[in-house]
Specification:
The chain is of the alpha/beta class. The longest helix is centred in the first third of the chain and has 16 residues. The chain is 29% helix and 19% strand.
Length: 330
Amino acid sequence: MSNRDKIALILAGGQIILKSPLPEQDTVPIEAEEILSLLPEKTQEALFFVNWSRQPISHYTLRMCGDLIQLAGRQIEEGSSGVVMTCGTQCLTELAYFADLVWSYPQPLILISSINYANSPGSETALSISQAVSAAGSQACWGQGVLVCAQDALYAAREVSLISNYSRAGCMALLYGPVAEFFEPRGCLSLRRSPHRGKVMDIKTIPARHVEILSASLGGGDVVFSALVEHAEELDGLVISAFGGGDIPPSWVPLLRKIMRVGKPIVLASRCAMGRVQAGTYFEGSAKHLLEMDLFSAGTLTPLQARIKLAVGLGAEISGQALREYMLDE
């Protein structure tokens, strides 16, 4: 039977498709037949399954993420009308953001996850899959990029944050709210707005391997930064997760210069959950000072987003002013 015009459900792991038989036993995956048994007939008829490595998401690398998103892209090229992908919650927002940077298809790619196992009381497995499949098949979601389906809503990959690892209400778009919402009991989907997307790279872009984040903390970081400088040649790039609007300890400035001497791009980001790099008062280690030193601004990107975007940009062989502009293309 042809899968053309159906929704591809990629089983890439996560507790949403795991069950725990007994407390003292390890978890086991639920297979396609069992997943189907949980779903309404209309949803069953709309999808087909694609298996992928069910490793914990903490084992992923950015290059593995690239392989996974290319797998999703192949489903579209072979005639699918949309893709839904399960994954773990721990790095859900990073995977979604990476995917959005390279997803150029108009058809939706929707990620789902859950903190609960599929056989937990009140499991969200059936509801999340049903809602995501419905959204992936909706013309309203075409051209919206990569979306995260959670808590009866759809969130833009660029905007969603994971604010809790133990609450069902752990996903939230702090500044913008959801892109669309499901209204029960009929589960109707209502699109509220279209999220802004920046430049989208080729889906076959291989991200740079060694882009690291160094986080500022009060009176800390010198030892870690000094050790990092010893391996500066191995770096592809560096993101500084700075205080507030982009300030760092003054002791970091000479260490930054050493990394810049070997030609490695350094991006300045705010460590605040809703932060923005701002050039204010000038002093040693201030954001204004660092930007004058030629660090790249991450604008409103979080440090995690800035790392992923820098890795993708470097993988696409962007450099110099073009890379600077790409980092700010939000």
